[in-house]
Design brief:
The chain is an alpha/beta fold. It is built from eleven helices and 17 strands. The protein is about 25% helix and about 30% strand. The strands form four sheets. Strands 13-12-11-14-15-17-16 form a seven-stranded mixed beta sheet, sandwiched between helices. The protein has a four-stranded antiparallel beta sheet with strand order 2-3-1-4, covered by helices on one side. It has a four-stranded mixed beta sheet with strand order 5-6-7-8. Bound molecules: S-adenosylmethionine (SAM).
Length: about 350
């Protein structure tokens, strides 16, 4: 085909557009400087040059396509970072106070902490975040600490849709989350994955404080284990059940709603592994976890808050609470999970325990 390269594109049926876009990207022919555009039920995909006969063969196998010429718009330029998105709207002394980091849960961004001077500019800041991260639909500001039995913080909507529900994906696991109704933190993804990677086929796991189910579902996605998932918050269990429908699982997740002290006695002596992710009071439930383990023993993953020398302190707290309750305990591993306050951390201990 003759003509200028600047307006060359491939016309393809809409349902084939994504497959085709990837193929063109692999062939390094996709023109990133022009926007893929819909036109009368078709999609026009810009290309940088004409296709060779071999390339045309590859593309034609994917779909009925045609190389045509059409003027396509350039993609919108979006700011690379918050400073450039806010350029000219906030004075330099306020730019210096911008939050260093934020969490993304599905299509919701969460700012943990905002300098008081920036509070009156929350909406401008949030809109700038949405420009930098176009997939974000809502920006929330955490306004209260993680509190109560259900461990839910409070939030204010700074910009975007007034919503708290989303689907978050971590390590390929889809999780239905409602930040106003049940605890969820995207900062625990590595930990969910680390623990799930240790579980073997046919294990029995008790996830004592399961929340919306990130540990439970990741385990059941990876291996054919049976996971009993307990949480006292009915909303957390309802969300967990929704997520079970979103994932293809090798294993089985059996949800229970209620206080672990009431539920766990039904699971006496069954578990190869117990997960105790309630760092503020996990030690108070150690007796329940021990009673849940098989008589030959099993692994406990216990989460604690600890100060100063956090790993040493966490191990001391764990060992002193365990004292006299078990035949044998060997700490296999311990690590800092995340900071939670100045000089305070969440720590995990993995221990082999024989009741
Ligand atoms: C820190 S969240 C952890 C959630 C989940 N494991 C995760 O990683 O996202 C602790 C959970 O424990 C639940 N919980 C608190 N006390 C409980 C109890 N006595 N019995 C069962 N669940 C409880 C809360 O509702 C909350 O969902």
């Amino acid at each position: 085909m003759e003509g200028t390269i600047s307006n060359l594109c491939i016309r393809a049926p809409r349902e084939k557009a994504e497959t085709l876009r990837r193929a063109l990207q692999r062939l390094e022919i996709l023109d990133q400087s022009r926007r893929i555009t819909a036109s009368n039920g078709f999609v026009l995909i810009p290309i940088t040059r004409n296709l060779s006969p071999d390339e045309m063969n590859v593309i034609a196998k994917l779909s009925q396509v045609e190389v045509i010429r059409s003027e396509l718009p350039s993609p919108p330029t979006r700011p690379k970072n918050l400073i450039s998105a806010l350029d000219g709207t906030l004075p330099p002394h306020l730019l210096a106070l911008l939050p260093r980091s934020f969490d993304i849960v599905g299509d919701i961004a969460i700012i943990e902490d905002l300098a008081p001077e920036l509070l009156p500019h929350g909406e401008i800041l949030a809109k700038a975040m949405m420009q930098v991260h176009p997939r974000v639909r809502t920006v929330l500001l955490k306004t209260g600490k993680v509190e109560g039995d259900f461990r839910i913080p409070s939030f204010a909507v700074l910009a975007g849709e007034e919503k708290y529900e989303t689907i978050h994906t971590e390590y390929g696991v889809k999780l239905k989350v409602d930040l106003s109704k049940a605890y969820f933190s995207s900062r625990l993804a590595t930990e969910h994955h680390r623990v799930a990677s240790q579980v073997r086929d046919s294990e029995i796991v008790v996830d004592m404080f399961a929340g919306v189910g990130p540990f439970s579902i990741m385990i059941a996605k990876k291996v054919s284990a049976k996971v009993f998932s307990i949480d006292i918050n009915p909303n957390a269990i309802a969300l967990l059940k929704e997520s079970l429908r979103l994932n293809r699982l090798k294993g089985e997740v059996i949800p229970f709603c209620g206080d672990v002290r009431i539920i766990a006695p039904r699971l006496k002596g069954v578990a190869d592994r117990v997960i105790m992710n309630l760092p503020a009071s996990s030690l108070d439930y150690l007796d329940v976890a021990i009673a849940t383990l098989k008589s030959c023993g099993g692994t406990i993953h216990i989460y604690l808050f600890a100060k100063d020398d956090p790993i040493k302190n966490a191990k001391e707290m764990f060992n002193s609470r365990l004292n006299g309750q078990v035949k044998k305990c060997e700490v296999l591993n311990s690590r800092i999970v995340k900071p939670v306050a100045p000089r305070e951390w969440q720590v995990v201990i993995d221990a082999l325990v024989v009741p």
